[in-house]
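C2 domain-containing protein structure dump, as promised
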Amino acid sequence: MGNCCSDVAGGQSAVGGTGVNQGNQPNAPNEAVDAFLKSRGYQGLYSQIELSLSATSLRDRDVLSKSDPMAVLYSKEKDGSLKELTRTEVVLNSLNPKWITKYTMAYYFETVQNLVFRVYDIDTQFHNQDVKMLKLEEQDFLGEASCTLAQIVTKSDRSLTMDLVSGEQFSGQAHARKFGKLTIFAEESISSKTTVELKLRCSELESKDLFSKSDPFLVVSKTTESGIVVPICKTEVMKNDHSPTWKPVFLKIQQIGSKENPLIIECYDFNSNGKHSLIGKIQTSLLDLEKLHSAGTSANLFIPTAMGPKQENKVLKSQLFVESYSEKIQYTFLDYLAFGYELNFMVAIDFTASNGNPRLPDSLHYIDPSGRPNAYQRAILDVGEVLQFYDSDKRFPAWGFGARPIDGPVSHCFNLNGSSTYCEVEGIQGIMMAYISALHNVSLAGPTLFGPVITSAAHIASQSLTNRERKYFVLLIITDGVITDLQETKDALVQAADLPLSILIVGVGGADFKEMEILDADKGERLESTTGRVAVRDIVQFVPLRDVQNGDVSVVQSLLAELPSQLLEYMRFRKIQPTL
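structure tokens r here:
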């Protein structure tokens, strides 16, 4: 997930993107490559966050001295259960402790990471015991607080102070007693920022195709201590090229462990069915790659000819060159959050007739009396649940398209709240209420047009850019069918690529969304307008809900994983640095 993103074309997953693609060379299809990487264990990227805890004005539970507090950190799982992560040391005789024990955890943008903190007064008779052995039920409870990791890292100083309360508040009692304050400070590990930039090329690659040259791409993987090979990034696919030079890839030192740790670079011939053919590979390390660059030499690829204990390798004529090698501290997604940037959520909902009569249970817009969310509601809740923490005012523009308001013509961009003057609603529940209300006040119609809602979102992003606001906008479009204004949508997206805007598209229902995937440059070529202008960056993520709703990867993670990389790519495109 990040920086939390699977990579965009160009193998830029490690830090979420690189400079803008120059010229008109399109990106090759990467859908099968992404599925291929995930099948081999690629789980996206993250930042390492170190948490420090302190408290003030704790309750004094001891008679002859002050409390001896210890803090316990838990993660709150989806089923509501708590999983203990760590315990601090015990600070003696203090109502204002600053604990030395730190806890390092991975921050994933695309996941809501719920945390619970509990503070205990440790009885004197247990002071000589290891804190891990203490039975918490035998200690005096001083209070608890809960938050998400996102609530901490979105603060400008990455510090969040909360009231410690009795556990009853979390059971529905609104007037729980306050027992002091707890402060959590988050610091991003420097290893999350130290990045190696590599530009790689190959020569004399062997052909794996019968009637054309190979379509090569590289996969860079690390080998864990247990011998498992885990992919960490890839390049783009180069069409019909036996001497390719790929765009730079970025590798975080954190991902690899150290410059001496073993790496495997594999060269594959791209096949659209996902069954890519291995052309050759090398076993190396960052240190070895640095030496190749310094000496101006190359390494021969090899291909295994026998497996098992006596594995043999056939050395090929194909060679790998390191065109450039550099190490630098790169700005991260969290740096821009600390600089004051927000993610502003927007949503557009498909009200075309192909969704079916909302009053009937087989409709995609059917509102189940039991409260079970339909596909539209689920997508709104899942995406909004993550993004709401990055939007301070939580006022979200919300539109519908493809419907006929009462006594009016078909509209391809109407305000979901029914207003003729403003489009915002209050919070995620505001979106849900406006959506249900709209179902009673419009007639489903058609056709399916994206252009108008994209233009509306782009107008808001453009105004924000003009006003020099520190905002990046995320438009969620939920649709049940293939659009009929494909070229107009391409034109709107090419224009929008210049703006602080990303677009997430969720396909619901059983339609064939193959044509829709054209809009996602991960799964096709870089978009081109009717005037021949090529989009400066990929801003679209598309996923059919049916492809992920029953799998291990949620629709949220599939959609949101690349958002940090798209934001970083935009910042580099605009040469915006998170410094005063």
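DSSP finds twelve helices and 25 strands in the chain.
lmk if u need the other ones
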